[in-house]
Amino acid sequence: MSSSSSTTATATATVTNNNSNNTSCCSSSSTVLSRKCFNSDCTDFKSRKGWRLRSGDFAELCDRCASAHEEGRFCETFHLNASGWRGCESCGKHESSQYNFPPQRIHCGCIVSLQAFTLLDAGGIACMACARNFFVMTSNPAWPPLFYHSPFPERLKDLSAKSWNQLAGSGPVPWRQAPSLFNSSATQSELQPRMPYEVDRLSAGERFSAPSLEKRNLEDFSERLINGSPRNHLWDIVENGNAGITGDEQPQLLSSLREDISAQQFGITIPYASPSESKGQIEGSVNPVQPAPLPLFAKRFHGTLHKGVDSSVDGQTRNGRPRIDARGKSQLLPRYWPRFTDEELQQISGNSNSVIKPLFEKMLSASDAGRIGRLVLPKKCAEAYFPPISQPEGLPLRVQDSKGKEWIFQFRFWPNNNSRMYVLEGVTPCIQNMQLQAGDTVTFSRLEPEGKLVMGFRKASLTSLSDQDNETSQTGDGVSANGDADLGPSPWSKVDKSGYIAKEVLEAKSSIKKRKSSTLGSKSKRLRIENEDMIELKLTWEEAQGLLRPAPDHVPSIVVIEGFEFEEYELVVPLDYSYSSLYGNLVDAPVLGKPTIFAMDDVGHKIQWVQCEDCLKWRKLPLNVLLPSKWTCSSNTWDSERSSCSVAQELTSEQLENLLPSCNLDSIYVYLNGISCSKCDDSQLFICTRCHVCESIVTSKRLKAAKKDIDNVEALGGLDTLANLAILGEDEALLASSQATTKHPRHRPGCSCIVCIQPPSGKGPKHKQTCTCNVCQTVKRRFKTLMMKREKKQSEKEAETTRKQQESSAEKLLDDDPSPSSNAGSASGSPNKKKAVSEGSDDDPNRMKSSASPFKGQIDLNIKPEREDELSPGSDSGGTKRMLQGASERYLRMQRFLSSDGDSIPASNHTVSRGGADEKVSSAVILGGSHQDAGENHPSAFSLIASASTPAT
DNA sequence: CGAGTGCATGGGG
DNA sequence: GCCCCATGCACTC
């Protein structure tokens, strides 16, 4: 800072009151209106700038006062006897400290000395010199970030202590703010920040430098800084009211410490270490919304980081997310850690200059998003960030949404198992206003200094994406090695504007496995996908795609049409008509290759296990073997000793049991045909192996039926697999659309099912038309076949398609229930089925629309089903007719099929266990849902299936 | 009878 | 085994 030219004209007043007991070194008003020195104890005329005010302006001082300030003598000069003087915990903890004579004293109750010390996690303070030598420092948490705003809104200028108190406490969380931390006698005017350079001066001027300290003591000190030892941990301090800060300091301190100190102590920044330093590190990190350098946002790493601090700080640095209360966070489950994006923060803050403090977030459960209007709050979050309530009735809580609209919720609790269960009541309007549903995330943050609670939200579809992005950036080296804020283009490699740099990233990086297995909440698991998993899943999906092949015993014939070779599969009649809904055709379903289970052998090599079709024994195979869909022991060329069904299997039943139910596969291979689930103790199909839960897709009855016809079983296998995979999509879609239930746990981003493994269309990497990856090739091949089949069949059937039934049946299909089982009087008349199918009735129109998509005969590998019609606005022309035709066609096919095999009808229902109530959902429903709700997450392959399911023109 | 309310239950961490 | 919390459920309005 440059000082103005010295004024001498009237500088006659002397600086007095050296021993003044006046604690107010400044005028009570932070707005300097007169020409008098800002120092109320001085009568000189102002001529130079002093410390920085909360308004962003500078206290204008006379020459002498300014000099005193610059020399770090201001407090000593003007209010030496004021209360609030403290000794540095390190160099001046005790006046008789062996390290310090005389002890470093810091007038911590005065804003002038704000930058001269930092609050210690363990309680007490440390002078900047010590602090800077031992750890990366932050701004004093005791002071709200507003101190660093410049310019500060006019309305917040000229705050008296009272008004500040009111302001800080006027929000929904008045119990939190502690504007006057140190001394009740400290007036607001004392809480004026100094200019950054003054800090340095002060620090530099400190008489006792760290090197003078013995190493061991340095480490001890650092340890204390980090761990709060030997003093009470901060939370202990808060809880026990013993912070090493005595007397009247405690009451004020406690309320603030509870969150603020703990929150920021080690997100440490040296505020304005120097103008040059600050420039690069601070300004660069300032959010555009923030007009002025915000020290809070800056973080600075010293080469001499204590190892104890290292991880913490590094973690903060590496994190692409806002930092939250380090202590508070440690109290919270990771799933509640706020993961605000810059955009979200900006949205919340709007145009205000307020600083957003992310508090926590929560993914809405079905209950939360339901009509009950009760949002269950994580206990620790509620207790940490919401006002303490002693009565179950609680308190009304005013919450502002990101649009500035205010909502009032009842914050209350229920006694629950000697504990409490906190809820926000009356959230329905807000939830609805935000159009939130189960799986979406609500975020809670607080505007500083207003103290307003702000409720934001994040849609589930974005959550996973952003999470993935974050994970990517996190696991990447988003932060320079020296720990300085990465000022690169990635918003998340910067310090966010709130100044919080979540430190969990490092933790996340260093313990991904751990988090995945233990610390991650179930909810988080649902929506989070680790970067590693993405790669893994992609690979395995491609591998799985490579397994797609014609149904067994049906050699594809090659047809050349217009120069293109098409594989034409022989007819395979699936047991489940509903599969035809997926394919739009009954007959051309390829199947997956023989499902296998990957495991490790005794020596740690990856192997796979396959089950013989005939004897059901499990055989060990090399890792990279791909099997045809039908495989028996006789085909075991890798282990001649076990190439016969008569040979016992290697696995003991126990080993097998361990192998099967664990579902810990690294692929999406499916279990088929009668593997018993350890959880439901029923014959099930295991599908997505990351789901870790069996999917009750196929009942034992169905399996029996399937086994009746071994030819069909094989087809069923592949079809089931795809259908099951699709069902997952529908599962989610239904759930999402209903808003009554949460997303199915299996259908989370960590899931490797067909729905989950590919990025939402339009958001992930796209496959080019020329892409020759397994996925694309398979999809193309299948698409061609489907198109061929369709055209062929259409031409054949169009003539004979009964016009009689066309109108009635088509209408019936469209309006109500395309279920042939009910129409055919089949035995499958599950009451749920009607419901399911009626829910799925929406599907057909969409599917039909998609059939009119522009890519006639050409596959869009990245097509997004729900957008197909968007892409082809004119696609509706003739669409209705085709829709009717297609519907009637399918209807007739189904009828024909059902009349020939009534037993298969039960198989047409997929029993999806959900919340204890089984719900039978036909694949047709699934498809519909995929178009509507889950479409965003749908993979190209599935899109293809959908789009190819209807006649193309 | 449906919506709202308060508590209980049980799965999962 | 404890705690959290999603959800069930009985009860009331």
From TrEMBL:
Residues 819-831 have a biased composition (Low complexity). SUPFAM superfamilies: DNA-binding pseudobarrel domain (SSF101936). The keyword Transcription regulation applies. Keywords: DNA-binding, Metal-binding, Nucleus, Transcription, Transcription regulation, Zinc, Zinc-finger. It is found in: Nucleus. Residues 360-461 form the TF-B3 domain. Residues 464-494, 788-888 are annotated as: Disordered. The keyword Transcription regulation applies. This is CW-type domain-containing protein.
